[in-house]
Each structure stands twice: as C-alpha cells, then as structure tokens.
Amino acid sequence: MGTLAPTGRVGQVLKLMPGPLLRALDGWSHRRAMARQLQRQQAWLNRQAPLPAPLHVQYKLKPWRD
Q1: Half-sphere exposure of 50 (CA within 13 A, CB side)
Q2: Residue 25: partners with Cβ closer than 8 Å, 6 or more residues away
Q3: What is the pLDDT of residues 2-52, one digit of tens each?
Q4: pLDDT of residue 60
Q5: Residue 19 in 3-state DSSP?
Q6: Which pLDDT score, from 0 to 100, does residue 61 have?
Q7: Are 45 and 54 within 8 A, CB to CB?
Q8: In angstroms, rounded to a whole number, what is the distance separating the alpha carbons of residues 7 and 49?
Q9: C-alpha to C-alpha distances, 30 to 9, 26, 41, 55, nearest whole angstrom
C-alpha cells in the first residue's frame, strides 16, 4: 500500500532527486516492507501455533491396603 506524496515541497524535492538515488530509496523501501511483512507473518504464525501439550506424567499406583 503506497501513499501519494503531496504536490508541495516534498513532490518538488522528489522531482529534483537523481534517478539512481530514487531507485536506491525505492529498493530500500521495498526491502523494509518485505522484512516488515515477514515479521507480521511470523507474529501471526506464533499466535496461531497450538499450545504445547502438557508433559505426560506417569501415574504411579499407590496400594489401597497393605
């Protein structure tokens, strides 16, 4: 999901930037977005993971009478 830059000063600055710098910034932004998406996906998977099963405690029969 992108946002539109305002046509004011930010837009003017973006128009004045050289192409290689804009491509580098765009690449950085894309890598950051992909890393953030991976973080969100991992957090979702962690929330969806089933709870660990309780450790199996072996029952020891106690004699009822001696």
Answers
A1: 3
A2: 17
A3: 666 557 888 888 889 999 999 999 999 999 999 999 999 999 998 887 777
A4: 79
A5: helix
A6: 80
A7: no
A8: 46
A9: 23, 6, 16, 44
Q: How far apart are CA 38 and CA 41, in angstroms?
A: 5
Distances (CA, A) of 5 to 11, 12, 30, 39: 6, 10, 17, 26
DSSP of 15-63: HHS-HHHHHHHHHHHHHHHHHHHHHHHHHHHHHHSPPPPPP-PPP-PPP
- Looking at residue 15, its amino acid is K
What is the Cα–Cα distance from 65 to 49, expressed in whole angstroms? Answer: 46
Type of residue numbered 47? R
